[in-house]
Amino acid sequence: MPAQQKKIVFCVAGVLSFACALGAAAAVGTQLWVKGTILCKTGALLVNATGQELQKFIGKIQYGLFYGERVRQCGLGGRPFQFSFFPDLLKIIPASIHVSVILFCTVLVIFALVGAGFFMFNAFGSPYETLHGPVGLYLWSFISCSCGCLIMILFSSEVKIHHLSEKIANFKEGSFTFKTHGEQFANSFWIILVCSLVQFLNALLVRFAGFQFPFSKPKDSGTTTGAVDLMY
């Protein structure tokens, strides 16, 4: 590929990586990771609510990595309640998984910015063979993509396997029991997925620019070796 086209490819990859870093940083600070509804099971059983009557006992919940809000409905109207994970919910949530998600989000943002810088450096500067060259670009993209995948896996397990929404809904509830009626991942969670796909796309752009994947052998190495062996 001509040098001018390589510059364009690296510029596009750098812009995508920078946008990924900004998107991930914005996603971390929001409460739009999970949205759902919670059923006041105790209240519904007390009045034997069915059909349309259940709507009076279905509240809402949404939360992110640091804070959120729930609206409890127990037949007397909605009552909103703001909460934060640190330090309010630290005792009832899987803290190690939750902290790991935050750490991997931080690593994703940092390495996406590093990748963006190196892509731009390779586009307009004199690249080195290791850190600034193609091997480095593959490395930063791989780390960012891996962090995005780990974030989605860990957070999904926290929500689905450890029933995070129910633990939050029943926080400081003495006589009432709440059950998750429905939940779905919201915008911020899907932004992390997009960021992972962008980093994978950046690696493909480096390959499209004409640079081999790391640890890949040239196709003609076997042919050359065979020709040398035939000479002896």
Automatic annotation (TrEMBL):
<comment type="similarity">
    <text>Belongs to the clarin family.</text>
</comment>
<keyword id="KW-1133">Transmembrane helix</keyword>
<feature type="transmembrane region" description="Helical">
    <location>
        <begin position="135"/>
        <end position="155"/>
    </location>
</feature>
<feature type="transmembrane region" description="Helical">
    <location>
        <begin position="189"/>
        <end position="209"/>
    </location>
</feature>
<keyword id="KW-0472">Membrane</keyword>
<feature type="transmembrane region" description="Helical">
    <location>
        <begin position="97"/>
        <end position="123"/>
    </location>
</feature>
<dbReference type="GO" id="GO:0007605">
    <property type="term" value="P:sensory perception of sound"/>
</dbReference>
<dbReference type="GO" id="GO:0050957">
    <property type="term" value="P:equilibrioception"/>
</dbReference>
<dbReference type="Pfam" id="PF25807">
    <property type="entry name" value="Clarin-2"/>
</dbReference>
<dbReference type="GO" id="GO:0016020">
    <property type="term" value="C:membrane"/>
</dbReference>
<dbReference type="InterPro" id="IPR026748">
    <property type="entry name" value="Clarin"/>
</dbReference>
<keyword id="KW-0812">Transmembrane</keyword>
<protein>
    <submittedName>
        <fullName>CLRN1 protein</fullName>
    </submittedName>
</protein>
